[in-house]
Design goal:
The chain is an alpha+beta fold and 128 residues long. Helices cover 23% and strands 40% of the residues.
Length: 128
């Protein structure tokens, strides 16, 4: 599990001052990128080696709106990792109130967009 906090900026919102629905996907990405980085996984290095983690599936449950100026907390959980699959779940809250819950399934692919097994050293980081 990993937790980050961020402020909701005006550019995150729609004309009504609520977070635009697709921006929650960006928040999920911020959460999982931080999750990887805190464990020493260098995403740019993986990209340079021809490993790409692409989103295959996303689920989002919108519970309540976040608004311009809110401080939100993004909690990311690694639920499962295998050679080519990485499953994350997320909770976004504001002042302890549930805002969004979601899941992503990432797939490791090579430059040809075919499944490519993640390097053993990456898998070992998360399976230990």
């Amino acid at each position: 599990m990993d937790k980050i906090t961020r402020k909701v900026y005006y550019y995150d919102t729609d004309a009504g001052g609520l977070v635009y629905h697709s921006n929650y996907l960006k928040y999920f990405e911020e959460g999982r990128t931080t999750f990887f980085e805190k464990r020493g996984v260098d995403i740019p290095s993986l990209l340079n080696q021809g490993y790409f983690l692409v989103v295959r599936r996303t689920e989002i449950d919108y519970i309540a709106p976040a608004r311009y100026g809110d401080i939100i907390e993004i909690v990311s959980h690694l639920d499962f990792i295998s050679g080519v699959r990485v499953n994350f779940s997320y909770e976004i809250t504001c002042n302890g109130k549930d805002i969004v819950r979601g899941k992503t399934l990432l797939v490791s692919v090579g430059e040809n967009m075919k499944p490519r097994r993640l390097p053993r050293e990456i898998l070992d980081i998360f399976k230990s």
